[in-house]
Amino acid sequence: MTAGPAAWRAQAACRGTDPALFYDPHPAAVAAAKTVCASCPVRDACAAHAIAAGEEYGVWGGLAADERPAPQPQREPAPGPAPRISDDELYDLLIDADPDRAALDQLLDHRWLPTATAYKALERAVRLGVVERRGRALFPTRH
Fold it and tell me: Start and end of every 4Fe-4S Wbl-type domain (predicted)?
């Protein structure tokens, strides 16, 4: 429990204590760990870290895992711009494409895209099942 970059850890009452004490699920060990936490000057910061980090095990800030509230769910990032080529267009282009010719070449023959964008589109095509990996390259699937 003492590893990591958080500044509060240097002031923790558990510093130098065997970390196994804080991860032993036996009720006597949990009680002993909570006793160490009771006099800790950074108890609140420790508990806040455990909650924010989603620590699943151990006693942190005087709270056992089942006593800590669940971390707040992450907000979904705002959606980015629409893809430059739709899944339907990818599917239609690559379903009957030449399986012996690189998918990137065939995609770029059909539509100009920045290379990074084209690779992202091809990753979607892999999920669509119309492109497969062969070694390090991407090719239209063979039917």
Answer: 13-70
Is 131 in a helix, a strand, or coil? strand
Tell me: do 58 and 100 sit in the same domain. no
User: What does the mean pLDDT of the chain come to?
Assistant: 86
Verify that 17 and 63 share a domain, yes or no. yes
Residue 14 assigned ligand-binding role? yes
Q: Note if the pTM is more than 0.85.
A: no
37 is known to lie in a ligand binding site: yes
The residue segments making up the domain with residue 109 are 87-140
Give the end of a domain, one of 18, 34, 67. Answer: 67
Q: What is the full DSSP assignment across 10-72?
A: GG-TTTTS-THHHH--SHHHHHHHHHHHHT-TTHHHHHHHHHHHT--SS-BTTB-GGGSPPPP
DSSP H or E run through 98: none
CA gap 143, 131 in Å, rounded: 11
Domains: count for the chain: 2
Is 6 annotated in some ligand binding site?
no
